[in-house]
Amino acid sequence: DDLHDMRRAGEMTVEALRKAVGPTLTFHLEDPTRLRELATLMVNTSLPQRAYRVLVLAHELGYPLRANVFESVAYQMAQTQQWKFVPYTTILAKRMIGHTTKRLLDWHARSLLECSQFDQLNKVLSLFEEENIKPSKRTYHLVLSGHLRNRDLAKARACLDQMQDAGFPMDGDTHAVIAKAYRSLGEDATVKSGALNALPTFGNGPATHLLNSLIQLALDSEDYRSVLRYLRYFDERYIGDAYDVVGAATIPVGGEDR
């Protein structure tokens, strides 16, 4: 820490820094594998930023850095829920080795989602484009989840379109992302109204799963009137089957079961 602070304050030249670093630290910094192990170990200290200080020190001393050391630090930050520090990993990788990786950018996106930095999350796909890296389906799911949590259905629809245009069709995982996001919003009346108004603009798959999520929310709160209301949005030929699945016999009418 002292060496890092002195170097940052301009109180020590690179040559002086090289002389001040002892043989034990040099042993760890000069080898890429040992450097990665040391940096990830620092994440679990009282000051997780020490991981970045290790990388900066190695870089300034001219020791080789590989992409996997940045990926390992980002992964360890995520494992320990140090989400606010993860974006610095991407920044340092870009500065020190001249590029990022798909894994780094996905961890970057996940950290923005976990920290509810939705404005920054909107820019994630542009970061992939700048790095000439193709986003993964996981990337689109992270961005989609962010839009849904932020109650921005227009951007959620656009993200689904982008994902499918990129060659990733909707699947069970996509539907699970949609369902989880809507269930996490709970009893927000504005969200429910917005979801219903947006149904015609969604494809059959996401529209069905949005309705299923709303139905499940209503069932959990024993709001059977809303259950029946949501069921009416399905094609009439499917209402009978859906009504049976919900359990028509258990839905109270006029204060009594029928």
Can you describe what's shown?
69% of the residues lie in helices and 0% in strands. It is mainly α and 258 residues long. It is elongated. Mean pLDDT is 78; it is low at 236-258.
> Which H/E pattern describes the elements?
HHHHHHHHHHHHHHHHH
What fraction of residues sit in β-strands? under 5%
Helical residue percent band: 55-70%
Distance between the termini: 72 Å
* Largest pleated sheet: none
**General form:** elongated
pLDDT under 50 segments (min length 5)? 236-258
Structural class assignment:
mainly alpha
Question: What Rg do the Cα atoms give?
Answer: 25 Å
**Tally of alpha and pi helices:** 17
Mean pLDDT: 78
Secondary structure: number of strands: 0
What features would you highlight for this structure?
single chain; 258 residues; mainly alpha; 17 helices; elongated
SSE arrangement:
Layout: H1 2-8, H2 14-20, H3 23-29, H4 32-43, H5 50-60, H6 67-79, H7 86-97, H8 102-114, H9 118-121, H10 124-130, H11 137-149, H12 153-165, H13 172-184, H14 189-198, H15 204-220, H16 224-231, H17 236-246
Helix pairs in contact: 4-5, 4-6, 5-7, 6-7, 6-8, 7-8, 8-11, 11-12, 11-13, 13-15, 15-16
Task: Write a short abstract of this structure.
With about 260 residues, this protein is an all-alpha fold.
